[in-house]
Amino acid sequence: MAHVPCPPETRIGHIHLKVADLDRAIHFYSDLMGFDLLTRMGDQAAFLSAGGYHHHLGLNTWESAGGSPPPQGTTGLYHFAINYPARRDLAVALKRLLDGGWTIDGSSDHLTHEAIYLHDPDMNGIELAWDRDPSEWPRDGDRVTFGNRPLDFTGLMAQLEQPVEA
């Protein structure tokens, strides 16, 4: 069967996560990550968004109330990425997490994008990312190549000193 590519405008939409404790998950994604709580369905589900979108994040306890994270070595979600529109936005997100007492698991400059890795309270992996302009991505012919350099935290956090662009 011949490969038929998706349209270039195709995007991954919202993510819906099973959580053990809805209040704890809402605190993390709203207070520490900055998403707006759009609606809550009792202790069963909540929907959060950035900028008024119908929802970027769905959280539910339908099959997972009081549950534990999946054990290491099993299949499932590795991580999902939250891409910020500007490098400064990534710095703001990192500062908000650190100020809230959250820790990160790692970071990298992949040359195509800068990435910060962490886990939510239910141990779902999250990548906070800022993409460089595609014209800056390293390539080998027509293929994008990736790297794994240390993230420049000093340069990233210096973005907080820059005026916000209108």
Keywords:
alpha+beta, 2 domains, Signal recognition particle alu RNA binding heterodimer, srp9/1, 166 residues, 4-stranded mixed sheet, globular, 2,3-Dihydroxybiphenyl 1,2-Dioxygenase, domain 1, 28% strand
Plain-language structure description:
The chain is an alpha+beta fold and 166 residues long. 18% of the residues lie in helices and 28% in strands. The protein is built from three helices and ten strands; from the N terminus they run E-H-E-E-E-E-H-E-E-E-E-E-H. It has helices at residues 22-32, 87-99, 153-158, and strands spanning 15-18, 36-41, 45-49, 57-60, 80-84, 106-109, 113-119, 125-131, 139-140, 143-144. The strands form three sheets. It has a four-stranded mixed beta sheet, covered by helices on one side. The longest helix is centred in the middle third of the chain and has 13 residues, at 87-99. It is globular. The protein starts with 14 loop residues before the first strand and ends in an 8-residue tail after the last helix.
